[in-house]
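Many introductory courses stop at the sequence. We go one step further.
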Amino acid sequence: MKRFKFSLDTLLKYRINMEKQKKEEWAKAKMERVKAEERLEQIYREERERREYLESLMEGELDLRIFQLVQRYIGQLIRLEKVQAKIVEEKKKIESEKLEEWIEARKAKKVLENYREKKWKEYLYEIDKEEQKMVDDLFLNSKRFANEN
């Protein structure tokens, strides 16, 4: 009996590697998006803290220079928030693209795995047929041998 040999094994190995690579790329893009979102949240927190500080300054005696500096700083934080929000959106877009690439690579791998499984079942069916033929031949030969004696 011949051994099972899948003719597209090299392609299957390639697709398995590609699927793994695409998954890693997606995971990296996701991590970058999460970091960008954390940075944006950090900027939001800083702005809230400075606004609270500004409100506390207004309750007591007010030093106009400090008030203006804090106001300018808050303005810079707001601009930074807008820039960081755009970065977050870009990271989300990249993550989404990488996820789609991973899904496509996974589908391509699955198609080949299913085809391999089909070929494996066909191989097992052929082996069963050969074994059955051998058993039938043995049975027929044993009957002939018994009839001759």
